Amino acid sequence: MSECPTKIDKFSTYTHQSARSFTCIHCGAPIPKRAPGTRHRNHCPHCLWSRHVDEHSGDRKSHCQQAMRPVAVTVSEKGEWSLIHRCTECGYIRMNRIAGDDNEFQLLAIAAKPLTQPPFPMELG
């Protein structure tokens, strides 16, 4: 995978910078910026994909701008779920809190995936 430059000018065409919504880089759905349960929406509530825009949370300094696949779910000690995203271009990994309107079926499918694909043979008996 290639490396992503870390600088981007203030006139970036990234659609998250629009006032009210953005378009999902993966499924193309129009996404409102406001999300229940979080101050900043950073992924699509339908397919859960994101875009590599930050080097550090909220800075919008990544030049990569490529799609970030949701690869895992983690749960904090307080029971709060977060998605783990990996950039499809450079491999950058980022954790993002889920929002109240995220697709619950998709979240559970991501959480269950390791159980359906164990790294060892599953033979009973």
Descriptive notes:
This protein is an alpha+beta fold and 125 residues long. It has one domain. The protein has 1 helix and 6 strands. Strands 3-4-5-6 form a 4-stranded antiparallel sheet, covered by helices on one side. A two-stranded antiparallel ribbon has the order 1-2. Strand 4 and strand 5 form a beta hairpin. The N terminus is likely disordered.
pLDDT < 50 runs, ≥5 residues: 1-18
Largest sheet: 4 strands, antiparallel
β-strand percent reads 15-25%
The ordered H/E elements are EEEEEEH
Shape designation: globular
The Rg value, from CA coordinates, equals 16 Å
Q: What do the pLDDT scores average to? A: 82
Q: State the share of residues found in helices, binned by percent.
A: 10-25%
What's the number of domains?
1
The strands making up the biggest β-sheet line up spatially as 3-4-5-6
* Number of helical elements: 1
What is the rounded distance between the termini?
Answer: 42 Å
Summarize the structure.
The protein contains one helix and six strands, in the order E-E-E-E-E-E-H.
Features:
single chain, 125 residues, alpha+beta, four-stranded antiparallel beta sheet, two-stranded antiparallel ribbon, 1 helix, disordered N terminus
Compile the SSE list and pairings.
Blueprint: E1 21-23, E2 30-32, E3 50-51, E4 67-75, E5 81-87, E6 93-97, H1 104-116
Antiparallel strand pairs: 1-2, 3-4, 4-5, 5-6
